[in-house]
Design goal:
The structure is a homodimer of 366-residue chains. Chain A is built from 14 helices and 12 strands. By secondary structure, the first copy, chain A, is an alpha/beta fold. In chain A, α3 links the parallel β4 and β5.
């Protein structure tokens, strides 16, 4: 960077911005990602999820750097959910709240009894914690009329996710890992964005916190080797690093390449779904979800058909919880005709039936 | 299996076959794979590559079991290449030859100075050995007028390959791993088939050799941790097994799912290549390889375009040796127009040029 020309301006998307020459490298990278993702730079409400760990603290501090130096100007809201999984979790919440207050941002704190929720829903603790957290962010977003929720996932999180899914035997749709930007849910306009995931490693977030002379919280759960993710971080990734020192970058690259593939296959699946359901639009009210033409499905390649079936089930049931490859194979058997049977079971008692050349989805609550 | 009904017959693909009730489980599985792959059961010459290790010895023994029990009847030829990488390699060749002779099959032995070839071609030993081996199989196939070459890759080989490619940052095309059945090369009708890869684990081949009371050779290279594949086998896979005891099956499943995806994407890439080159067919003789319409390429999704470019380069140069993602990105830059430059370099001095709205490939020997 040329130190002499600090405040040159640059026209971009119709906005005039100061050159980021005086920013820290970390904030500069975040600003670059912000531009690439075409996120709002002003006149918006943005929620940043902060646990208090190095990653989310760094994200908050870098946003603060960009706001204080006038590169970004929007209403930033710090959201923190106390999971009540550890005794000191309310201390953590207080720590995050006080950091947000010192920096001058609105803070939204929530509490959830994650253990209880996990028991109720039959989820494991990680799943239940995640679900509670994202529900809280969605509520906060509605309450604050926010357009964007930011989480501080890094390249390391991405690499861990890719490996965890690989070890479960996932296909491309799992191996694309954590998405950079996606709708928060199917109903709202809210965006869920991970502005660090394509460029920041965990070591970067830790170094940036140190540079800013701000402590971060050490989450004990991040050390607990009963969690598969922790074992991936502490054992598997270091071993893989002995094969390729840039293993995190390699796994991130694989996820990116697969994302391009999945985009194409997903579009083809949408088209197949349209082609297989078209003529039955009028029956929608009767069967709740559309029925699908068996012949159209049978003629399609397996890779497209399976994706279309997943979308169809998700549309009819609301989600794909517990739907595994085995269930899809069961539905594919129905397509084989007389010998393939007439009914395939889905988790929770939902059924897929073959009737008069079409597949019908019968949900328990449908 | 019902022991009372041993010799029931079954009509399949127009052939009448004895029930495989009396076969060992290993041979029965091989026969099932043989049928699924629609391989010739009679009136053919089939080459089986035998190193003398557990996998290839088991494959040879199981083929022998199926031939001796008249489930298969074709001319089986045992091929072994002495790589001359170890002192006792000629003993191995003699061992394989004597096993083939005892069983009553034709044997074809070859020798190659793999170290020398590796030096010459700039390959590593594994690559050079592989290349020498497959050249030898192709020559043997021509000499013996064989339709099929069999290699004894197992699910474990598949899992190792998937992991090695993953650690290099491969996309789906690498992660599909070893193919079950493919043309040996672009020129011939010869098939390269791995009849064990979808069902046999290494422990199965070892157990089957023991069951048949036949020793197998222990390849020292399989213990040498200087080879990445050996470290994957001895360190990485055991660690991953602590996450998922069926890790080999999981990785194999991922490879299979990705294979379905790649089949669809590959077909789309073939279509794109046709669409982008059509009008220039007549200029073929002048430029050696076809030129491609920039606008057609630009309009295509990245996942399809990159695959089309790889096929185009492979077609023009004969192979994709040393062509990396960075080279493809270089070519994609040419598509951006004036700012993207006019020339992209490929390994070995080949060039891709943008001229009058088309991409042209200039090979050094073209």
């Amino acid at each position: 960077v040329n130190g002499k020309k600090k405040y040159s301006t640059k026209k971009r998307n119709g906005l005039v911005r100061a050159s980021p020459a005086k920013l820290t490298a970390f904030a500069r990278n975040l600003l670059q990602a912000w531009w690439t993702l075409a996120l709002p730079t002003a006149d918006a409400s943005v929620i940043v999820a902060v646990s208090g760990g190095a990653d989310s603290t760094a994200l908050l501090l870098a946003l603060d750097e960009l706001i204080k130096t006038k590169r970004l100007s929007f209403q930033l809201i710090v959201a923190h959910l106390d999971h009540r999984l550890r005794k000191q979790s309310s201390d953590d919440a207080r720590w995050v709240a006080s950091l947000a207050r010192e920096l001058g941002y609105d803070r939204q704190l929530g509490r959830a009894d994650v253990s209880k929720r996990a028991m109720k829903a039959g989820d494991n603790l990680e799943q239940a914690a995640r679900r509670a957290r994202y529900e809280f962010f969605a509520e906060t977003a509605i309450h604050k009329r926010a357009e964007v929720v930011l989480t501080a996932h890094t390249m390391d999180d991405q690499a861990e996710t890719v490996l965890l899914r690989l070890m479960r035997g996932s296909g491309a749709d799992g191996l694309i890992g954590i998405e950079t930007l996606r709708p928060f849910d199917s109903k709202s306009q809210l965006l869920l964005v991970r502005p660090l995931i394509s460029w920041a490693k965990r070591s970067d977030t830790e170094n940036y916190c140190r540079l800013r002379k701000i402590d971060f919280l050490a989450d004990e759960m991040n050390q607990d080797e009963r969690f598969a993710r922790v074992r991936v971080r502490k054992r598997l990734l270091p071993l893989m690093q002995s094969f390729n020192p840039r293993i995190v970058e390699a796994l991130t690259r694989t996820a990116e390449l697969l994302r391009d593939d999945v985009a194409v296959l997903d579009r083809a699946a949408d088209e197949l779904l349209r082609a297989a359901s078209d003529e039955m639009q009028k029956k929608r009210s009767e069967t709740k979800s559309l029925s699908l033409n068996v012949n159209v499905l049978t003629a399609a390649p397996a890779a497209i058909r399976r994706r279309a079936l997943r979308k169809w089930i998700a549309g009819g049931r609301g989600d794909l919880r517990r739907v595994e490859m085995a269930h899809l194979r069961g539905i594919e058997k129905l397509l084989e005709g007389g010998r393939g049977g007439r009914i395939a079971e889905l988790p929770n008692g939902d059924l897929v039936m073959r009737r008069r050349g079409r597949l019908e989805l019968r949900t328990r609550n449908g």
